[in-house]
Please model this.
Amino acid sequence: MSSIAQNIEFLRHEMPAGVALVAVSKFHPASCILEAYEAGQRKFGESRVQEFLEKEKELPGDIEWHFIGHLQTNKVRQIIGKTALIESVDTERLLFLIDNESAKAGVMTRVLLQVHVAKEETKFGFSEEELADFFKERKFEALTHTHISGIMGMASNTPDEERVRDDFRRIAAIFKRIKMDIAPDLRGFDQLSMGMSGDWKIAVEEGSNIVRIGSAIFGVRNY
Ligand SMILES: *Cc1c(COP(=O)(O)O)cnc(C)c1O
Model:
């Protein structure tokens, strides 16, 4: 068995049922994705549009592609209709652009809104307050071809596990607040994507049901 298949098997064994594993294949060649595919993996995560499109074209059609990187507005059209889930919607402008392009293409696009809680990490994402306001003001009602399935977030990149746990708690808390208090009538809002190779166990303990794992499956990336 290849090491990629072994890593996937190990992770599946460690993870509770009900947690979806997204294999983050960015910077790794299509041949590595195929190894994972042959081990039964179907969900893959990519973060750059060009790279995603090249892989999507040549790899099996039943792969569920998760787009997880910052998506520039001028590139939205290129990926519409090709993703199972866009996890990294980080502004309202991007969200409504996705909706427009999905309408034009006649498809329904599933997305997660990215929330930003980590201190020193990526600046992308809604703040907790912006996210609460978005749902309080019921702006999602204007969407016709986009379904908001939940929230994605990242913890601070630090060895301090308490800090990481605290970040995941904040992300889970805003998710629950939207789901239970702010917009309890929102249907199909049930995906909480948190956790990467180094911190997925903590994320799952804090309620994550999608983990995005790259290096623990494919090894280190050569940028
Ligand atoms: C690269 C990336 C991952 C995977 O990171 P690993 O540490 O390699 O598991 C997860 N989520 C996002 C948003 C990423 O960009």
About this structure: Residues 24, 26, 47, 68-69, 196-198, 212-216 surround pyridoxal-5'-phosphate (CB under 6 Å). The chain is about 40% helix and 20% strand. The longest strand covers residues 146-154. The chain has a mean pLDDT of 96.
